[in-house]
Design brief:
It contains three helices and two strands. Helix content is 61%, strand content 4%. It has a domain of 60 residues: Substrate Binding Domain Of Dnak, Chain:A, Domain 2, CATH 1.20.1270. By secondary structure, it is mainly alpha-helical. α1 packs antiparallel against α2 and α1 runs parallel beside α3. It is globular, with a radius of gyration of 15 Å. The chain has a two-stranded antiparallel sheet. Pfam families: DUF357.
Length: 101
């Protein structure tokens, strides 16, 4: 990545972010008990993340990589938040997720 222009969303950059978020989605397990209020929250967070991720893929496929970049970052933000507050079990992965410690 040496010499990479930092203020341009390139095809390579959006593809890298889509891959990171896909790996995060694949890793997450819902930690909240089935009948708890937190389970409803976890399901909602996951729905938002998947929706934004799918939007990002759609925008990437249509050539709108700036909007795709925004959508994939929203998707990952939902995942990070859910992991950080304990709705999702991410097996302590602090590379794909922003954990508290």
């Amino acid at each position: 990545m040496e010499g990479e222009i930092k203020n341009v969303v390139t095809d390579e950059r959006i593809d890298r972010y889509l891959d990171i978020t896909k790996r995060a989605l694949d890793k997450i397990r819902i930690a909240a008990p089935e009948r708890s209020f937190n389970r409803r929250l976890a399901d909602s967070f996951m729905e938002m993340a998947v929706s934004y991720y799918n939007d990002a893929k759609h925008f990437r496929e249509t050539g709108d990589i700036v909007t795709a970049f925004a959508a994939v970052n929203y998707a990952h933000g939902w995942l990070d938040c859910g992991a950080r507050i304990g709705l999702f079990d991410v097996d302590g992965d602090d590379q794909l997720f922003t954990l508290f410690e």
